[in-house]
Amino acid sequence: MANKGPSYGLSRDVQSKIEKKYDDELEERLVEWIVAQCGAGVGRPERGRLGFQVWLKNGVVLSELVNSLYPEGSKPVKIPKPPPTMVFKQMEQVAQFLKAAEDYGVVKTDIFQTVDLFEGKDIAAVQRTVMALGSLAVTKNDGHYRGDPAWFMKKSQEYKRDFSDSQLKEGKNVIGLQMGSNKGASQAGMTGYGRPRQIIS
Predict the structure, then answer these.
(1) Cα(29)–Cα(27) distance, rounded to whole angstroms?
(2) What pTM, to 2 d.p., does this model score?
(3) Which carries the bigger pLDDT value, residue 196 or residue 59?
(4) What is the C-alpha to C-alpha distance for residues 71 and 104, in angstroms, rounded to an integer?
(5) Is the dihedral of CA 152, 35, 104, 123 positive or negative?
(6) Which of 37, 104, 155, 191 could make an SS bond with 139 (beta carbons 3.0 to 4.6 A apart)?
């Protein structure tokens, strides 16, 4: 990682907009869930964006979080002991979490980039990923979620309908409203709009 100096002009405007997306109230809720899900052993971060980033930066807390959503014996991420101290090992650990989160069902658009967390470019994106993971865990309702279910919104699920052959046959006789109606007013007897064409000789 190259050390980056202060940004100016448009770069600074863009970065400040990204930083404004960070939600302190959401941070509290996510910290509460991570501690409830993983146990007190993960500790707690200092309040604020920087504290949240430092807490998650080496990828161990995130890996423990995703592992806690799986049954014993099928944990997707291997957590090294002691936690990694080398930069590329920490980034690798975060990348393993991201792969496990995607396998769990988090959509690609909700997943942050490793540099968003590691360099603090977009900590709000990290919040979105953890939020999506929590929502999926509540929706799956497989007994591995710990914490208050009201912390996350359930994702909508498919509502499968099974129609019998006779119901499907009846449906073919119905004229959809997009096609108009074959009852009521008609255009019989109407003439075209506007004045007729004037032919002057």
Answers:
(1) 5
(2) 0.70
(3) 59
(4) 13
(5) positive
(6) 155
**pLDDT tens figures, 49-94:** 888 889 988 889 999 899 888 888 788 888 888 888 888 888 999 9
Q: Residue 81 corresponds to which tokens in the numbers above?
A: 């002991």
| Residue from 115, 103, 110 nearest 125 by CA | 110
Within its chain, how far is the Cα of 91 from the centroid?
21
**Are 147 and 130 spatial neighbours (Cβ–Cβ below 8 Å)?**
no
* Cα 166 to Cα 22: distance, rounded to the nearest angstrom: 54
Region 9-38 average pLDDT = 80
- Angle, helices 123-140/60-67, rounded to nearest 10 degrees: 10
In three-state form (DSSP H/G/I as H, E/B as E, the rest C), the secondary structure along the chain is CCCCCCCCHHHHHHHHHHHHCCCHHHHHHHHHHHHHHHCHHHCCCCCCHHHHHHHHCCCHHHHHHHHCCCCCCCCCCCCCCCCCCCHHHHHHHHHHHHHHHHHHCCCHHHCCCHHHHHCCCCHHHHHHHHHHHHHHHHHHCCCCCCCCHHHCCCCCCCCCCCCCHHHHHHHCCCCCHHHCCCCCCCCCCCCCCCCCCCCCC
Q: How far apart are CA 49 and CA 124, in angstroms?
A: 9
> How big is the CA angle at 175 (ends 174 and 178), to the nearest 5 degrees?
140
